[in-house]
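Standup notes
- HV: blocked on the assembly model, inputs below
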Amino acid sequence: MKRWNGWGEETCDFPLRDDALAFLASRIGPGKAVQDASFEAACASLAPSRLPEHPLIDATPATRLRNALGQSLPDWLKLRFGRIGTAPDGVAFPESAQQVRELIGFAQKNGVSLIPQGGGTSVAGHLTAPGGDKPVLAVNMTRMGRLHYLDKQSQLATFGAGVLGPDLEAQLRAHGYMLGHFPQSFEYSTLGGWVVTRSSGQQSLRYGRIEQMFAGGVVETPQGRLDIPTFPASAAGTDLREIVLGSEGRMGILTEATVRVSPLPEYEAFHAVFFPDWESAEAAVRALAQSRGGLSMLRLSNPLETVTMLALAGHKRLIGLLEGWLKLRGCGEGKCMLMLGASGPRKQARAALRSAIATCRGFKGVHVGRRMGEKWKEGRFRNVYLRNAAWQHGYVIDTVETAVDWPRVALMMRAVEAAATGVLGGMGEKVHTYTHLSHLYAQGASVYTTFVYRLGGDYETDMARWKALKHAVSMAIVDNGGTISHQHGVGSDHAPYLAAEKGAAGMAAMQALFSHFDPQGIMNPGKLLPAGQAA
Amino acid sequence: MKRWNGWGEETCDFPLRDDALAFLASRIGPGKAVQDASFEAACASLAPSRLPEHPLIDATPATRLRNALGQSLPDWLKLRFGRIGTAPDGVAFPESAQQVRELIGFAQKNGVSLIPQGGGTSVAGHLTAPGGDKPVLAVNMTRMGRLHYLDKQSQLATFGAGVLGPDLEAQLRAHGYMLGHFPQSFEYSTLGGWVVTRSSGQQSLRYGRIEQMFAGGVVETPQGRLDIPTFPASAAGTDLREIVLGSEGRMGILTEATVRVSPLPEYEAFHAVFFPDWESAEAAVRALAQSRGGLSMLRLSNPLETVTMLALAGHKRLIGLLEGWLKLRGCGEGKCMLMLGASGPRKQARAALRSAIATCRGFKGVHVGRRMGEKWKEGRFRNVYLRNAAWQHGYVIDTVETAVDWPRVALMMRAVEAAATGVLGGMGEKVHTYTHLSHLYAQGASVYTTFVYRLGGDYETDMARWKALKHAVSMAIVDNGGTISHQHGVGSDHAPYLAAEKGAAGMAAMQALFSHFDPQGIMNPGKLLPAGQAA
């Protein structure tokens, strides 16, 4: 069963080994475990449901709790300390567009707010029930996950929008196809969630961001149904898909989505290359992204992330040998690890890899072969579990991400890390912070920074720490010209910083659009646009 | 000087040779030339300007006439027969965003409608002045065409939005860069026009549609300035660029645009391949598009377009030899011509071509080498001039284009051609109609059909012919699930058919968005959304 207060399956544990713990302790001091609240106590803390009865709604505390929050650090603090705060008054699991319309009608009639959700993997506070007098209904879409139609000629697949990543790929695989969208949340996130938060997956370099995959769909809105047909491309006015993308539940509920799929790749491989320093590494990935050489993935770790990944990798002796060998080849202190991947027709993918590795050599890159790349692939959905393990030892792991044009990439990385170090330092705490570029573009890169620091041990302290950290790093992003999110969306955590990039005119346009579809303001109020601006 | 009533430079003539004329006459009968109205007579026919005087406004009839219309067939009929109808009451040529704001303020204060324009190449009636009591001001943006900033590291270039295609490429070339956007209108169309009509160029397979190139910009709207910063990608809510793209002047005036540029290609080549029949050819281009093999262009002519292009190519003896040779290799009657191109790093581009030609062979394709491809490239901006020459002999040339998913591509081609043949046949006229797929996608293709038929010789007859033809082919597009435009936009000619794809909900959303920026409805009223829906 899915953990109610952490990541993933209850039966899956990936403990931190002693040397990894020693590494963390040496960086930020020893952690002190805290006692988590029990599921029963958390259930008992929920206020009684204010929803009128409805055959589609489950208002039991257990169901409400399991659909109350996402995976952001404040969500975790609420769950772990049993301080849930607001929670939806009930949860519906619609099985058809008809039922979704019925729920919207119910909400309109009864003054209820709706929070659409999928797998509950948001790390930006998309799912928090607003306070206030209105009852809140969570609409969990995961029962609408069937493959409705596969058009092999056009490589289009139509799914219920609540389909989870693995179910989506399994249904396609049976026909010899794949979508190729692999965010780290892949195992628990849904197609609909990806679309409305503009998600991006690890192999976006070949398969595209969800924006490029989303070909059309159906949205049920308080003002009626919006039906978006599929075209290969169009010059006919506003692209309605773009109104749905990134709408974060504010205009309605996406019930069906058609996506551009690909035949299963003949060949797929991931390789690792090390660089002696950040400057060479950044120049190399820029050259690779700008050459459009047909890779499917590029992921560059900065020196401290490289050290951390090697320290956590296990196989201490092997890693020691590797580091010795790398040192002889010029990659010692300050080295940076690049993972690169290719996927597709064998000849094409292998040529892309060959050419990329040759390019890397021109920037002092040292190719260490396929084995580390495959290790990375194996662990790519497992790393999230480290968060559970770290918590058990009194550490929290949090991340932020942005994207900027090339001239600001390194500045941004340093600014975000420095902001975190500064703000936690001011509280007498150390932070272990490191960064990778998760998605590479000709124009720039996403900058994805991780923070590991110690739990204070009580809800108020830890929430205050997180708030201070979040504000400091978000201001660093804004001040350095980054977008407040490259792949996680806005939700409530990023909403205060959105106006910095959209401007007053952009914010007002978004508000006008969502108010058009949702004049009563019942759809996920307070998310994306600051609460004060809700209709 | 630019022709006032036709395409291109007055000094450039590309006459139809006798054998080409004989070919046309054999297909649709002999044409009868008509006497064009004189520039002076057309000027004299304009109603007096109703605009108050303003230092930025030129209200002379000559300037008003030269900025009154575009290049659609009804625009031509109005110009050639001297039946201009409505025209703007004046034209402004702003040189700064400040002046654009001043003009918007002037329009708001004086109840004036504004029609933003660039090079006047619209073929969908974007520029027609609406009738009614309100004075109309055309805002010609071509004096705002400077390269403001080139960020080589991020491959971003910021231009005044009125920059014409050749000026844009020349300014970039001086720095070793290019944009790579080559619609057939390239020589007279502007960056701003491309953005607000969602234009697509011949090498979009590598360089992207304008949607992929447009990274940010500035729009002056009646509600103030919308400033869209550049990010490599973002998950932060609605992508404001998408509100500007395809807005066709309805929300404001784009004054500045930042585009994603590329280094000048090391290598560029175009090749021709012939196929024995449409079925093999379509299967081949689908395979090529779906393999993402790195080509920059694919352009497939159907049998009659192939015949026509060979007939108009000149070099009758050489073409005869080619056709004999092709026939021996299985490409006789019914053969289809494919142009394919690659552009970029030498090794990459050559590999893409080699692999593509090998793929073609698997579909019975016969490679005839580079020469015909280069000939095509040479003539690619010259073919438009044929319209002038045809008119001189009493023939009109018109085109429509759409895009559909693969299962409907061939159906669409036949339906559009049959609709044209049917409607003109009903009027006792023949039409020479042929089609190419101008842009190829994994999902489907654009379907671009040309019609050549005889001028009736008087304005009423010819306008009635065009209206009947336009309606018939537009209904064929709509009925077969195509978008009403893949690359030309909506304007006034396509506006009646837009609701078929957007639905009532989509139309209302667009209206809400534009009304938000332009509550008085002064921006290009009646375009894109049917006039009845104007705010």
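- HV (later): unblocked. Chain B has 19 helices and 18 strands. Residues 495-517 of chain B form the longest helix (23 residues).
- Next: hand off to the docking folks.
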